[in-house]
Task: structure prediction
Amino acid sequence: MNSALLKASPKASSDISLFSATALGIGGMMGAGLYSLLGLASTHAGTHLPLAFLIGAIAASFSVYSYAKLGAAFPSSGGAATFTVMSFGPGIISGGLNLFQYIAYLIAAALYAAGFVEYTNTIFGGNLSPLMLKFITAAIIVICTFINLLGPSLVGKAEMLAISLVVISLLVFSAMGFEQANYKTFTMGGGSIEGILVAAGILYINFQGFGVVTNSSSAMKSPQKELPLAMFSALILVTLAYLAVSSAVVLLMPLGTIEHHNGHVLADAAQIVAGKMGFVVISISALLACAAAVNATIFAASNIAADVTKKQEVSNALGQSVLKTQLRALTVSSGGVIILALVFPLNEVGQMASLAFLLVYAAVTYGHLRVHQTTGAKPKILWCAIVINLSLFTALLISTIQTSPSSAIALAMALIASFGIESFSRLRAKKN
Result:
């Protein structure tokens, strides 16, 4: 097993630089959510998309504070998998939460893979066969899994290259969009307060990537300084990009058009400002962003698996049988992502991912309250994170039950199964 993924050795400490960690966070955030969920979010928020992004960013900032404090106090490649056992102790609660958040990362990676396939099909005029789309889905996940096998250093470098190109293309698109927008004819439309909150919940998946950075803390030279800086830098940069891009989109396209194009809104908006060339450039940047997000999220999921394997008391269900080696962990993770990406449509997997992480971040932050004296975190800020996450979770869950109950049921089954499997595993271990 690659020791760089498991412990902070002298060699591992130089594997992830501050810039690489920031790029890893941006890569985890700037993926399919931005490129593929704008249409879905606009059906709830109307032209208030930028406001929904801002609310999501504010909500995420409180969780970033919690995770940064935890990561600085307990640096580990397992990230939040370590935080839960430090907060709740080794047992069913920490084990069940770790198994559920492992599944949450697989769902998120499936969303990004689905976004990659959506834009691939768009580039080819929507003419690719269902079989070909499934093949592309599996291929991009396998490629990202292979990159992860080569080590965290390559993961960070791959993120930096892909995200640099993505950010440049988005900044150029935003600038051109603001220049060509007709401000005189623009009117606000749609989006009740409840709808904006639901949209913020849907778009929350765009910010979950900050958790990926904590998985690289054990490979940092000085996680106490570098981890918070990397996490907040990634969040601020991504938020600015989201606000600029979403503002340009609502200025350029009528609300009905945004909702109609749904999964590839940005590519069609780019065609308005730069013709076919803009369409192609943004589509390619979408492919890079989604691939980078798949890469970063599988990195996080496999690190959780590797960490709980090393610390068997964290989760018997993960550590004792299925995920004993890095290769097996990556294989199981990529297999799970492929299944999720093939079974659930993009919109549904997007809602599932946001719901899962809103719940995970609330639970981890609640556990943080138990050790806040060790981390130095302020309880009031932690309570704000819990209340905000649960509020967005409730708003999105109600909407999901009404619009796509199958995804809500699937997520509930995943949550129940996580604690059920963990409980059964521990009871069986005691008997043996």
The radius of gyration is 20 Å.
